[in-house]
Amino acid sequence: MKMKQATQITALSSAIMILIAGCSSEKQATAKTPADFHETGLPIVDKPITLTIAGNFDDRTGAKWNELETFKKINEGTNVQINWNLTPGTDWKTKRNLIIASDDLPDVLLDLTTSQVVTGGAEGTFIPLEDMIEKYAPNLKNFLTKYPEVRQAITAPDGHIYSLPLANMSEYKHADGNTLWINKEWLKKIGMEMPKTTDDLLKVLKAFKEQDMDGDGNPNNEIPLTGVYGDGQYGFGNLFGSFNTLDRQFIVKDDKVQFVRGTEEFRNAIKYLHSLYELGLIDPDSFTQNSTQHIAKISAGKKASVGAFFAWSADQITNASFRWDYGSPMIPLVGPTGAQVTAYNNLQMTPGMFTITKVNKHPEATMRWVDRAYEPEMSMMLREGPNRLKKLDNGRYDIIENPPNFTAGEWKVKETPYNSFVYGFSEEMRKKQNLPKAEPGQLDPDFDEWYEALKPYMKHWIFPNIMFTDEQYKQIERYQTDIKKYTDKMEAQWIVKGGIDTEWDNYLKTLDKMGLKDFIKVYQEGYDTNKKNLAKK
Protein backbone atom coordinates (compact mmCIF):
# COMPACT_ATOMS: atom_id res chain seq x y z
CA MET A 1 0.00 0.00 0.00
CA LYS A 2 2.78 2.40 0.92
CA MET A 3 4.48 1.54 -2.38
CA LYS A 4 1.28 2.40 -4.28
CA GLN A 5 0.93 5.74 -2.45
CA ALA A 6 4.54 6.63 -3.17
CA THR A 7 4.01 5.87 -6.85
CA GLN A 8 0.92 8.09 -6.92
CA ILE A 9 2.75 10.94 -5.19
CA THR A 10 5.66 10.63 -7.66
CA ALA A 11 3.25 10.66 -10.60
CA LEU A 12 1.45 13.70 -9.18
CA SER A 13 4.75 15.50 -8.62
CA SER A 14 5.82 14.76 -12.20
CA ALA A 15 2.50 16.07 -13.50
CA ILE A 16 2.89 19.27 -11.50
CA MET A 17 6.45 19.73 -12.81
CA ILE A 18 5.27 19.24 -16.40
CA LEU A 19 2.47 21.75 -15.84
CA ILE A 20 4.92 24.28 -14.36
CA ALA A 21 7.33 23.73 -17.25
CA GLY A 22 4.49 24.23 -19.70
CA CYS A 23 3.50 27.50 -18.03
CA SER A 24 7.14 28.59 -18.05
CA SER A 25 7.40 27.86 -21.78
CA GLU A 26 4.26 29.86 -22.43
CA LYS A 27 5.73 32.81 -20.50
CA GLN A 28 8.96 32.62 -22.51
CA ALA A 29 7.03 32.54 -25.76
CA THR A 30 4.94 35.50 -24.64
CA ALA A 31 8.09 37.41 -23.66
CA LYS A 32 9.57 36.81 -27.08
CA THR A 33 6.41 37.68 -28.98
CA PRO A 34 4.63 40.48 -27.09
CA ALA A 35 0.91 40.99 -27.57
CA ASP A 36 1.43 44.32 -29.32
CA PHE A 37 3.76 42.82 -31.99
CA HIS A 38 2.32 42.74 -35.52
CA GLU A 39 3.47 40.08 -37.97
CA THR A 40 2.65 42.31 -40.95
CA GLY A 41 1.96 45.96 -41.60
CA LEU A 42 2.88 49.01 -39.53
CA PRO A 43 3.59 49.70 -36.80
CA ILE A 44 5.75 46.68 -36.06
CA VAL A 45 4.90 47.11 -32.36
CA ASP A 46 2.23 49.26 -30.76
CA LYS A 47 4.42 50.50 -27.91
CA PRO A 48 7.83 51.97 -28.92
CA ILE A 49 10.86 49.78 -28.27
CA THR A 50 14.55 50.65 -28.42
CA LEU A 51 17.21 48.33 -29.86
CA THR A 52 20.91 48.85 -29.17
CA ILE A 53 23.04 48.06 -32.22
CA ALA A 54 26.85 48.06 -32.18
CA GLY A 55 28.90 48.36 -35.34
CA ASN A 56 31.38 50.56 -37.19
CA PHE A 57 31.08 53.63 -39.38
CA ASP A 58 32.81 55.20 -42.38
CA ASP A 59 34.40 58.56 -41.55
CA ARG A 60 32.79 60.04 -44.66
CA THR A 61 29.32 59.16 -43.33
CA GLY A 62 29.78 59.79 -39.61
CA ALA A 63 28.15 58.10 -36.63
CA LYS A 64 24.77 59.88 -36.52
CA TRP A 65 22.92 57.17 -38.42
CA ASN A 66 19.45 58.08 -37.17
CA GLU A 67 19.86 61.36 -39.08
CA LEU A 68 20.59 59.57 -42.38
CA GLU A 69 17.78 59.63 -44.94
CA THR A 70 17.99 55.85 -45.38
CA PHE A 71 17.42 55.10 -41.70
CA LYS A 72 14.71 57.72 -41.38
CA LYS A 73 12.82 55.74 -44.05
CA ILE A 74 13.57 52.36 -42.46
CA ASN A 75 12.45 53.57 -39.01
CA GLU A 76 9.39 55.47 -40.22
CA GLY A 77 6.12 54.18 -38.78
CA THR A 78 7.68 51.13 -37.09
CA ASN A 79 7.77 52.27 -33.43
CA VAL A 80 11.26 50.75 -33.41
CA GLN A 81 13.94 53.15 -32.25
CA ILE A 82 17.66 52.50 -32.57
CA ASN A 83 20.40 53.36 -30.11
CA TRP A 84 23.54 53.19 -32.28
CA ASN A 85 26.81 52.29 -30.55
CA LEU A 86 29.24 52.92 -33.39
CA THR A 87 33.03 52.72 -33.58
CA PRO A 88 35.39 54.07 -36.29
CA GLY A 89 36.09 51.34 -38.86
CA THR A 90 39.81 51.25 -38.04
CA ASP A 91 39.03 50.36 -34.40
CA TRP A 92 36.14 47.97 -34.94
CA LYS A 93 38.10 44.73 -34.99
CA THR A 94 39.43 45.39 -31.50
CA LYS A 95 36.11 46.75 -30.20
CA ARG A 96 33.98 43.83 -31.42
CA ASN A 97 36.41 41.33 -29.86
CA LEU A 98 36.10 43.15 -26.53
CA ILE A 99 32.30 43.20 -26.76
CA ILE A 100 32.12 39.46 -27.41
CA ALA A 101 34.71 38.62 -24.75
CA SER A 102 33.02 40.77 -22.09
CA ASP A 103 29.59 39.25 -22.78
CA ASP A 104 28.15 42.78 -22.31
CA LEU A 105 26.13 42.38 -25.46
CA PRO A 106 23.94 44.79 -27.41
CA ASP A 107 20.72 43.59 -29.04
CA VAL A 108 22.45 43.41 -32.42
CA LEU A 109 26.11 43.13 -33.45
CA LEU A 110 27.19 44.18 -36.94
CA ASP A 111 30.08 43.15 -39.17
CA LEU A 112 31.50 39.98 -37.62
CA THR A 113 33.82 37.39 -39.11
CA THR A 114 32.25 34.10 -40.15
CA SER A 115 34.25 32.32 -37.43
CA GLN A 116 32.79 34.66 -34.80
CA VAL A 117 29.31 33.96 -36.16
CA VAL A 118 29.69 30.17 -36.13
CA THR A 119 31.37 30.06 -32.73
CA GLY A 120 28.87 32.51 -31.25
CA GLY A 121 26.00 30.51 -32.72
CA ALA A 122 27.33 27.24 -31.30
CA GLU A 123 27.78 28.84 -27.87
CA GLY A 124 24.34 30.45 -27.87
CA THR A 125 25.58 34.05 -28.11
CA PHE A 126 23.67 34.54 -31.37
CA ILE A 127 20.22 33.08 -31.96
CA PRO A 128 19.15 31.04 -35.02
CA LEU A 129 17.31 33.17 -37.58
CA GLU A 130 16.06 30.84 -40.32
CA ASP A 131 12.54 30.40 -38.90
CA MET A 132 12.10 34.14 -38.41
CA ILE A 133 13.36 34.79 -41.95
CA GLU A 134 10.69 32.45 -43.24
CA LYS A 135 7.93 34.06 -41.18
CA TYR A 136 8.82 37.74 -40.80
CA ALA A 137 11.29 38.70 -43.56
CA PRO A 138 9.61 38.46 -46.99
CA ASN A 139 12.11 40.78 -48.68
CA LEU A 140 15.13 38.82 -47.46
CA LYS A 141 13.39 35.51 -48.15
CA ASN A 142 12.79 36.54 -51.78
CA PHE A 143 16.42 37.65 -52.14
CA LEU A 144 17.76 34.35 -50.77
CA THR A 145 15.44 32.43 -53.09
CA LYS A 146 16.75 34.40 -56.04
CA TYR A 147 20.39 33.96 -54.97
CA PRO A 148 20.79 30.55 -53.29
CA GLU A 149 24.55 31.09 -53.15
CA VAL A 150 23.91 33.83 -50.57
CA ARG A 151 21.83 31.45 -48.44
CA GLN A 152 24.64 28.90 -48.73
CA ALA A 153 27.19 31.50 -47.60
CA ILE A 154 25.23 32.42 -44.45
CA THR A 155 24.25 28.87 -43.44
CA ALA A 156 26.47 27.41 -40.73
CA PRO A 157 27.53 23.74 -40.94
CA ASP A 158 24.97 22.87 -38.25
CA GLY A 159 22.22 24.00 -40.64
CA HIS A 160 21.32 27.20 -38.78
CA ILE A 161 21.52 30.78 -40.01
CA TYR A 162 22.98 33.00 -37.30
CA SER A 163 23.66 36.14 -39.34
CA LEU A 164 22.22 38.25 -42.14
CA PRO A 165 24.33 39.41 -45.07
CA LEU A 166 25.38 42.45 -46.97
CA ALA A 167 25.27 41.15 -50.54
CA ASN A 168 25.89 42.97 -53.81
CA MET A 169 25.08 40.57 -56.63
CA SER A 170 25.97 42.95 -59.47
CA GLU A 171 27.86 41.01 -62.14
CA TYR A 172 30.52 43.70 -62.50
CA LYS A 173 31.61 42.99 -58.91
CA HIS A 174 33.30 39.81 -60.15
CA ALA A 175 36.07 42.18 -61.27
CA ASP A 176 38.92 42.65 -58.80
CA GLY A 177 38.81 45.87 -56.78
CA ASN A 178 42.61 46.08 -56.74
CA THR A 179 43.45 47.84 -60.02
CA LEU A 180 46.55 49.64 -61.26
CA TRP A 181 46.25 53.24 -62.46
CA ILE A 182 48.95 55.12 -64.36
CA ASN A 183 49.28 58.80 -65.21
CA LYS A 184 48.55 59.15 -68.92
CA GLU A 185 49.81 62.73 -69.00
CA TRP A 186 53.16 61.56 -67.68
CA LEU A 187 53.24 58.84 -70.34
CA LYS A 188 52.77 61.48 -73.02
CA LYS A 189 55.56 63.56 -71.52
CA ILE A 190 58.08 60.70 -71.69
CA GLY A 191 56.81 59.55 -75.09
CA MET A 192 55.92 56.03 -73.98
CA GLU A 193 52.83 53.87 -74.52
CA MET A 194 50.60 52.30 -71.89
CA PRO A 195 52.57 49.34 -70.46
CA LYS A 196 51.49 45.94 -71.71
CA THR A 197 54.07 43.76 -69.95
CA THR A 198 55.84 43.72 -66.60
CA ASP A 199 59.04 44.78 -68.40
CA ASP A 200 57.18 47.72 -69.93
CA LEU A 201 55.98 48.82 -66.50
CA LEU A 202 59.50 48.73 -65.08
CA LYS A 203 60.79 50.91 -67.95
CA VAL A 204 57.95 53.41 -67.56
CA LEU A 205 58.39 53.72 -63.80
CA LYS A 206 62.13 54.17 -64.28
CA ALA A 207 61.48 57.04 -66.69
CA PHE A 208 59.05 58.59 -64.19
CA LYS A 209 61.76 58.49 -61.53
CA GLU A 210 64.50 59.99 -63.66
CA GLN A 211 62.60 62.97 -65.08
CA ASP A 212 60.91 66.06 -63.65
CA MET A 213 57.39 64.83 -64.31
CA ASP A 214 55.49 67.49 -62.36
CA GLY A 215 57.53 70.32 -63.87
CA ASP A 216 58.55 71.95 -60.59
CA GLY A 217 62.25 71.91 -61.42
CA ASN A 218 63.02 69.06 -59.01
CA PRO A 219 63.38 65.62 -60.66
CA ASN A 220 63.68 63.89 -57.29
CA ASN A 221 60.29 64.48 -55.67
CA GLU A 222 58.12 62.34 -57.94
CA ILE A 223 56.83 58.97 -56.74
CA PRO A 224 56.83 56.35 -59.53
CA LEU A 225 54.57 53.80 -57.79
CA THR A 226 52.82 53.78 -54.41
CA GLY A 227 50.44 51.48 -52.56
CA VAL A 228 49.55 50.03 -49.16
CA TYR A 229 51.38 46.77 -48.48
CA GLY A 230 49.03 43.97 -47.49
CA ASP A 231 45.84 45.85 -48.37
CA GLY A 232 43.35 44.05 -50.62
CA GLN A 233 42.35 47.20 -52.48
CA TYR A 234 45.45 49.41 -52.38
CA GLY A 235 48.20 46.75 -52.21
CA PHE A 236 50.44 45.16 -54.86
CA GLY A 237 48.16 42.21 -55.54
CA ASN A 238 47.29 43.33 -59.06
CA LEU A 239 50.78 42.38 -60.25
CA PHE A 240 50.57 38.77 -59.01
CA GLY A 241 48.38 37.84 -61.98
CA SER A 242 51.34 38.41 -64.28
CA PHE A 243 53.01 35.45 -62.55
CA ASN A 244 50.02 33.08 -62.83
CA THR A 245 48.75 33.41 -59.28
CA LEU A 246 46.63 35.69 -57.09
CA ASP A 247 47.53 37.62 -53.97
CA ARG A 248 45.30 35.59 -51.67
CA GLN A 249 46.02 33.31 -48.74
CA PHE A 250 44.41 30.32 -50.45
CA ILE A 251 43.31 29.80 -54.05
CA VAL A 252 41.79 26.77 -55.77
CA LYS A 253 43.14 25.35 -59.02
CA ASP A 254 41.41 22.26 -60.44
CA ASP A 255 39.65 21.67 -57.09
CA LYS A 256 42.98 21.59 -55.25
CA VAL A 257 43.55 24.19 -52.55
CA GLN A 258 46.89 26.01 -52.71
CA PHE A 259 48.60 28.13 -50.07
CA VAL A 260 49.82 30.90 -52.38
CA ARG A 261 52.84 31.93 -50.34
CA GLY A 262 54.29 28.46 -50.70
CA THR A 263 54.25 28.37 -54.52
CA GLU A 264 56.83 29.09 -57.20
CA GLU A 265 54.43 31.61 -58.73
CA PHE A 266 54.51 33.63 -55.51
CA ARG A 267 58.28 33.40 -55.42
CA ASN A 268 58.54 34.87 -58.93
CA ALA A 269 56.09 37.67 -58.17
CA ILE A 270 58.11 38.74 -55.12
CA LYS A 271 61.34 38.71 -57.13
CA TYR A 272 59.75 41.11 -59.61
CA LEU A 273 58.51 43.44 -56.85
CA HIS A 274 62.02 43.44 -55.37
CA SER A 275 63.45 44.46 -58.75
CA LEU A 276 61.14 47.50 -58.70
CA TYR A 277 62.00 48.37 -55.12
CA GLU A 278 65.74 47.95 -55.69
CA LEU A 279 65.58 50.57 -58.44
CA GLY A 280 63.75 53.02 -56.20
CA LEU A 281 60.50 52.69 -58.13
CA ILE A 282 58.26 51.67 -55.20
CA ASP A 283 57.45 54.28 -52.57
CA PRO A 284 59.09 53.12 -49.29
CA ASP A 285 56.07 54.52 -47.41
CA SER A 286 54.01 51.76 -49.02
CA PHE A 287 55.08 49.48 -46.16
CA THR A 288 54.01 51.82 -43.36
CA GLN A 289 51.18 54.02 -44.66
CA ASN A 290 47.50 53.17 -44.28
CA SER A 291 44.75 53.71 -46.84
CA THR A 292 43.90 57.19 -45.53
CA GLN A 293 47.52 58.31 -45.87
CA HIS A 294 47.72 56.66 -49.29
CA ILE A 295 44.69 58.59 -50.56
CA ALA A 296 46.01 61.84 -49.06
CA LYS A 297 49.31 61.34 -50.86
CA ILE A 298 47.89 60.69 -54.33
CA SER A 299 45.43 63.59 -54.03
CA ALA A 300 47.79 66.21 -52.56
CA GLY A 301 48.81 69.40 -54.38
CA LYS A 302 47.59 71.11 -57.51
CA LYS A 303 49.54 68.74 -59.77
CA ALA A 304 49.94 64.99 -59.64
CA SER A 305 53.11 63.81 -57.91
CA VAL A 306 52.47 60.05 -58.28
CA GLY A 307 52.98 58.15 -61.51
CA ALA A 308 51.02 54.99 -60.68
CA PHE A 309 49.03 53.62 -57.76
CA PHE A 310 46.64 50.83 -56.77
CA ALA A 311 42.96 51.55 -56.02
CA TRP A 312 39.41 50.77 -57.14
CA SER A 313 38.68 54.13 -58.72
CA ALA A 314 40.98 57.06 -59.44
CA ASP A 315 38.37 59.78 -59.91
CA GLN A 316 36.81 59.18 -56.48
CA ILE A 317 40.00 59.60 -54.47
CA THR A 318 42.37 61.90 -56.39
CA ASN A 319 42.36 65.69 -56.58
CA ALA A 320 39.69 67.16 -58.87
CA SER A 321 42.30 69.21 -60.72
CA PHE A 322 44.13 66.12 -62.03
CA ARG A 323 41.84 63.12 -61.42
CA TRP A 324 41.38 62.50 -65.14
CA ASP A 325 45.15 62.43 -65.72
CA TYR A 326 44.91 58.74 -64.81
CA GLY A 327 42.28 57.97 -67.44
CA SER A 328 41.72 54.23 -67.14
CA PRO A 329 42.92 51.33 -65.02
CA MET A 330 45.37 48.98 -66.67
CA ILE A 331 44.47 45.64 -68.22
CA PRO A 332 46.48 42.83 -66.52
CA LEU A 333 50.08 42.94 -67.61
CA VAL A 334 51.70 40.05 -69.45
CA GLY A 335 54.35 38.42 -67.28
CA PRO A 336 57.71 36.85 -68.21
CA THR A 337 56.12 33.48 -69.08
CA GLY A 338 53.06 34.94 -70.82
CA ALA A 339 50.71 34.79 -67.81
CA GLN A 340 48.01 37.49 -67.84
CA VAL A 341 45.54 36.78 -65.05
CA THR A 342 43.00 38.54 -62.88
CA ALA A 343 40.56 37.06 -60.38
CA TYR A 344 36.96 36.14 -61.06
CA ASN A 345 35.99 37.28 -57.59
CA ASN A 346 33.24 36.07 -55.34
CA LEU A 347 30.53 38.70 -55.48
CA GLN A 348 30.68 41.35 -52.77
CA MET A 349 29.35 39.78 -49.61
CA THR A 350 29.70 40.13 -45.84
CA PRO A 351 27.92 37.05 -44.44
CA GLY A 352 28.24 38.15 -40.79
CA MET A 353 26.89 41.68 -41.14
CA PHE A 354 23.90 41.41 -38.75
CA THR A 355 23.52 39.10 -35.75
CA ILE A 356 20.76 39.09 -33.14
CA THR A 357 22.19 38.33 -29.71
CA LYS A 358 20.77 36.26 -26.89
CA VAL A 359 19.95 39.37 -24.80
CA ASN A 360 17.58 40.76 -27.45
CA LYS A 361 14.05 40.80 -25.96
CA HIS A 362 12.40 41.60 -29.30
CA PRO A 363 13.93 39.27 -31.93
CA GLU A 364 10.79 39.08 -34.09
CA ALA A 365 10.41 42.85 -34.14
CA THR A 366 14.15 43.14 -34.91
CA MET A 367 13.76 40.78 -37.86
CA ARG A 368 10.78 42.70 -39.24
CA TRP A 369 12.68 45.99 -38.82
CA VAL A 370 15.85 44.82 -40.58
CA ASP A 371 13.86 43.22 -43.40
CA ARG A 372 12.90 46.74 -44.47
CA ALA A 373 16.55 47.19 -45.51
CA TYR A 374 16.18 44.26 -47.95
CA GLU A 375 13.25 45.85 -49.81
CA PRO A 376 14.75 46.16 -53.33
CA GLU A 377 14.56 49.95 -53.64
CA MET A 378 15.84 50.49 -50.09
CA SER A 379 18.75 48.13 -50.73
CA MET A 380 19.62 50.20 -53.76
CA MET A 381 19.48 53.36 -51.65
CA LEU A 382 21.72 51.77 -49.01
CA ARG A 383 24.15 50.68 -51.71
CA GLU A 384 24.18 53.70 -54.02
CA GLY A 385 23.12 56.60 -51.79
CA PRO A 386 19.62 58.12 -52.06
CA ASN A 387 21.04 61.55 -52.93
CA ARG A 388 22.59 60.07 -56.10
CA LEU A 389 19.36 58.54 -57.44
CA LYS A 390 16.36 60.18 -59.10
CA LYS A 391 13.42 57.89 -59.76
CA LEU A 392 11.79 58.43 -63.14
CA ASP A 393 8.18 57.87 -64.19
CA ASN A 394 9.17 54.73 -66.10
CA GLY A 395 10.56 53.08 -62.94
CA ARG A 396 14.20 53.65 -63.87
CA TYR A 397 16.72 55.80 -62.01
CA ASP A 398 18.99 58.59 -63.15
CA ILE A 399 22.37 59.02 -61.47
CA ILE A 400 22.86 62.49 -59.99
CA GLU A 401 26.46 63.67 -60.28
CA ASN A 402 28.28 64.83 -57.16
CA PRO A 403 28.27 68.57 -56.43
CA PRO A 404 31.62 70.40 -56.73
CA ASN A 405 32.06 70.51 -52.93
CA PHE A 406 31.86 66.70 -52.68
CA THR A 407 34.12 63.98 -54.02
CA ALA A 408 32.28 61.14 -55.75
CA GLY A 409 33.00 58.90 -52.77
CA GLU A 410 31.70 61.43 -50.24
CA TRP A 411 28.56 62.00 -52.29
CA LYS A 412 27.87 58.27 -52.52
CA VAL A 413 27.97 57.71 -48.76
CA LYS A 414 26.38 61.00 -47.69
CA GLU A 415 22.98 59.58 -46.62
CA THR A 416 23.76 55.91 -46.14
CA PRO A 417 26.00 53.67 -43.99
CA TYR A 418 27.09 52.16 -47.34
CA ASN A 419 29.05 48.95 -46.64
CA SER A 420 28.65 49.01 -42.85
CA PHE A 421 25.06 47.71 -42.79
CA VAL A 422 22.97 45.05 -44.51
CA TYR A 423 21.45 45.25 -47.98
CA GLY A 424 20.59 42.84 -50.77
CA PHE A 425 21.43 44.56 -54.05
CA SER A 426 20.52 42.61 -57.18
CA GLU A 427 21.70 42.74 -60.78
CA GLU A 428 18.09 43.54 -61.67
CA MET A 429 18.16 46.74 -59.59
CA ARG A 430 21.50 47.76 -61.07
CA LYS A 431 20.05 47.40 -64.58
CA LYS A 432 17.27 49.82 -63.64
CA GLN A 433 19.87 52.57 -63.27
CA ASN A 434 20.73 54.82 -66.20
CA LEU A 435 24.44 54.38 -65.66
CA PRO A 436 26.87 56.75 -67.35
CA LYS A 437 28.84 55.25 -70.19
CA ALA A 438 32.62 55.26 -70.29
CA GLU A 439 34.19 57.96 -72.43
CA PRO A 440 35.98 56.72 -75.57
CA GLY A 441 39.36 55.37 -74.56
CA GLN A 442 38.49 55.41 -70.86
CA LEU A 443 37.47 52.56 -68.59
CA ASP A 444 36.29 52.63 -64.99
CA PRO A 445 35.71 49.74 -62.55
CA ASP A 446 32.22 51.10 -61.79
CA PHE A 447 31.22 50.53 -65.44
CA ASP A 448 30.22 47.22 -66.97
CA GLU A 449 32.67 47.91 -69.81
CA TRP A 450 35.58 47.33 -67.43
CA TYR A 451 34.15 43.98 -66.33
CA GLU A 452 33.71 42.97 -69.97
CA ALA A 453 37.29 44.03 -70.74
CA LEU A 454 38.63 41.83 -67.93
CA LYS A 455 36.58 38.73 -68.73
CA PRO A 456 39.17 37.15 -71.06
CA TYR A 457 41.75 37.21 -68.26
CA MET A 458 39.57 36.06 -65.35
CA LYS A 459 40.35 32.82 -63.54
CA HIS A 460 37.92 31.04 -61.19
CA TRP A 461 40.57 30.50 -58.55
CA ILE A 462 39.11 32.40 -55.60
CA PHE A 463 38.29 30.31 -52.52
CA PRO A 464 34.48 30.38 -52.15
CA ASN A 465 32.48 32.11 -49.44
CA ILE A 466 31.82 29.29 -46.97
CA MET A 467 31.34 28.77 -43.26
CA PHE A 468 33.55 26.18 -41.58
CA THR A 469 32.54 24.15 -38.53
CA ASP A 470 33.38 25.48 -35.08
CA GLU A 471 36.07 22.79 -34.76
CA GLN A 472 37.56 23.75 -38.14
CA TYR A 473 37.67 27.41 -37.12
CA LYS A 474 39.56 26.41 -34.00
CA GLN A 475 42.07 24.52 -36.16
CA ILE A 476 42.38 27.54 -38.48
CA GLU A 477 43.01 29.80 -35.49
CA ARG A 478 45.67 27.36 -34.28
CA TYR A 479 47.75 27.87 -37.44
CA GLN A 480 46.70 31.13 -39.05
CA THR A 481 48.15 33.76 -36.73
CA ASP A 482 51.70 32.41 -36.66
CA ILE A 483 51.80 31.43 -40.33
CA LYS A 484 50.43 34.77 -41.50
CA LYS A 485 52.76 36.73 -39.24
CA TYR A 486 55.76 34.77 -40.49
CA THR A 487 54.88 34.96 -44.18
CA ASP A 488 53.98 38.68 -43.92
CA LYS A 489 57.38 39.36 -42.43
CA MET A 490 59.27 37.33 -45.04
CA GLU A 491 57.33 38.76 -48.00
CA ALA A 492 57.99 42.37 -46.96
CA GLN A 493 61.63 41.56 -46.22
CA TRP A 494 62.15 39.94 -49.61
CA ILE A 495 60.54 42.83 -51.48
CA VAL A 496 62.77 45.36 -49.72
CA LYS A 497 66.02 43.44 -49.22
CA GLY A 498 65.83 40.54 -51.66
CA GLY A 499 67.21 37.08 -50.89
CA ILE A 500 64.13 34.97 -51.61
CA ASP A 501 66.04 32.42 -53.72
CA THR A 502 68.70 31.71 -51.11
CA GLU A 503 66.19 31.52 -48.26
CA TRP A 504 63.35 29.72 -50.03
CA ASP A 505 64.11 26.11 -49.01
CA ASN A 506 64.52 27.01 -45.35
CA TYR A 507 61.31 29.09 -45.55
CA LEU A 508 59.33 26.06 -46.77
CA LYS A 509 60.83 23.86 -44.03
CA THR A 510 59.79 26.43 -41.42
CA LEU A 511 56.24 26.46 -42.77
CA ASP A 512 56.12 22.67 -42.57
CA LYS A 513 57.16 22.83 -38.90
CA MET A 514 54.42 25.42 -38.31
CA GLY A 515 51.79 22.97 -39.56
CA LEU A 516 51.17 24.27 -43.07
CA LYS A 517 50.04 20.87 -44.42
CA ASP A 518 47.39 20.58 -41.72
CA PHE A 519 46.36 24.20 -42.34
CA ILE A 520 45.84 23.47 -46.04
CA LYS A 521 43.97 20.26 -45.17
CA VAL A 522 41.34 22.17 -43.17
CA TYR A 523 40.64 24.44 -46.14
CA GLN A 524 40.58 21.51 -48.55
CA GLU A 525 38.04 19.68 -46.37
CA GLY A 526 35.91 22.81 -46.10
CA TYR A 527 36.03 23.31 -49.86
CA ASP A 528 35.16 19.65 -50.59
CA THR A 529 32.21 19.68 -48.16
CA ASN A 530 30.87 22.91 -49.61
CA LYS A 531 31.12 21.53 -53.14
CA LYS A 532 29.19 18.39 -52.15
CA ASN A 533 26.49 20.46 -50.47
CA LEU A 534 26.06 22.65 -53.54
CA ALA A 535 25.78 19.55 -55.74
CA LYS A 536 22.84 18.32 -53.63
CA LYS A 537 20.81 21.47 -54.21
Folded structure, characterized:
With 537 residues, the chain is an alpha/beta fold. It folds into two domains: 25-171 and 350-387, D-Maltodextrin-Binding Protein, domain 2, CATH 3.40.190; 176-344 and 439-537, D-Maltodextrin-Binding Protein, domain 2 (3-Layer(aba) Sandwich), CATH 3.40.190. The chain has helices at 2-32, 69-75, 92-102, 114-123, 130-136, 138-146, 148-154, 184-190, 198-210, 264-278, 291-299, 363-371, 376-384, 408-412, 427-431, 448-454, 470-497, 500-513, 516-536; strands spanning 49-57, 80-88, 108-110, 164-168, 179-182, 223-226, 250-253, 256-259, 306-311, 342-343, 348-356, 389-391, 397-399, 423-425, 433-434, 458-459. The protein has a six-stranded mixed sheet. It has a three-stranded mixed sheet with strand order 5-9-6. It has a three-stranded mixed sheet with strand order 12-13-15. Helix 6 crosses helix 7 (148-154), helix 10 (264-278) runs parallel beside helix 17 (470-497) and helix 17 (470-497) packs across helix 19. It is globular.
Question: Layout of SSEs?
Answer:
Layout: H1 2-32, E1 49-57, H2 69-75, E2 80-88, H3 92-102, E3 108-110, H4 114-123, H5 130-136, H6 138-146, H7 148-154, E4 164-168, E5 179-182, H8 184-190, H9 198-210, E6 223-226, E7 250-253, E8 256-259, H10 264-278, H11 291-299, E9 306-311, E10 342-343, E11 348-356, H12 363-371, H13 376-384, E12 389-391, E13 397-399, H14 408-412, E14 423-425, H15 427-431, E15 433-434, H16 448-454, E16 458-459, H17 470-497, H18 500-513, H19 516-536
Parallel strand pairs: 1-2, 1-3, 4-14, 6-9, 10-16, 13-15
Antiparallel strand pairs: 3-11, 4-11, 5-9, 7-8, 12-13
Helix pairs in contact: 6-7, 10-17, 17-19
